[in-house]
């Protein structure tokens, strides 16, 4: 019993130390080393491989945890948007999503690319889709369930592309999506285009 508890504490210490390093390093995740993680966590070097297999899997798990907290926040925005129309709620949620992606570029890129390369039943992309689905349905109550699902999928896919391919989109459309106001205007236009409202 004591050994297992010690193991769980070590694992959590490694995760917390890694999350702090990810936040500090930003886009320079290649600078995060196992030695630095273990030093901050106060554990031996072999425990990263023991608990996570390797550094990349550890970082992936930490990023997933960080994004999960944000996705759960998305699902709880009702209090802030009580007086909003469904379209205003969807716009608000989209702006929060895009701001997070661009403000946490490195971890967001890893999260989105991981979901694309290794899709899982309840990954961050799916959880984002699930958070958007009822809002899309509320915006277009005249559509059947299949159409609502398609439009929600289109929206999530376009937002991921806005993030991953912002430089190309900027060249094609002449819009700098790194600028919050430009991003918000473009996102509103995307919503109008997809939802046809």
UniProtKB/TrEMBL annotation:
GO terms for molecular function: DNA binding. It comes from Massilimicrobiota timonensis. This is HTH tetR-type domain-containing protein. Pfam families: TetR_N. Residues 8-70 form the HTH tetR-type domain. The keyword DNA-binding applies. It comes from the Bacteria. Keywords: DNA-binding. Residues 33-52 bind DNA.
């Amino acid at each position: 019993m004591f050994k297992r508890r010690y193991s769980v504490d070590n694992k959590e210490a490694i995760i917390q130390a890694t999350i702090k390093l990810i936040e500090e390093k930003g886009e320079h995740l290649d600078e995060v080393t196992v030695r630095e993680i273990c030093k901050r966590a106060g554990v031996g070097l072999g425990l990263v491989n023991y608990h996570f297999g390797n550094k990349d899997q550890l970082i992936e798990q930490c990023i997933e945890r960080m994004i999960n907290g944000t996705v759960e926040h998305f699902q709880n925005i009702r209090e802030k948007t009580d007086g909003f129309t469904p379209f205003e709620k969807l716009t608000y949620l989209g702006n929060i999503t895009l701001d997070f992606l661009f403000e946490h570029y490195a971890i967001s890129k890893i999260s989105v690319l991981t979901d694309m390369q290794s899709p899982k039943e309840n990954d961050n992309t799916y959880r984002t889709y699930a958070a958007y689905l009822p809002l899309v349905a509320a915006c277009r109550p005249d559509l059947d369930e299949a159409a609502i699902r398609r439009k929600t999928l289109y929206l999530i896919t376009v937002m991921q592309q806005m993030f991953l391919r912002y430089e190309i989109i900027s060249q094609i459309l002449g819009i700098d999506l790194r600028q919050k106001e430009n991003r918000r205007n473009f996102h509103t236009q995307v919503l109008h285009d997809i939802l046809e409202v």
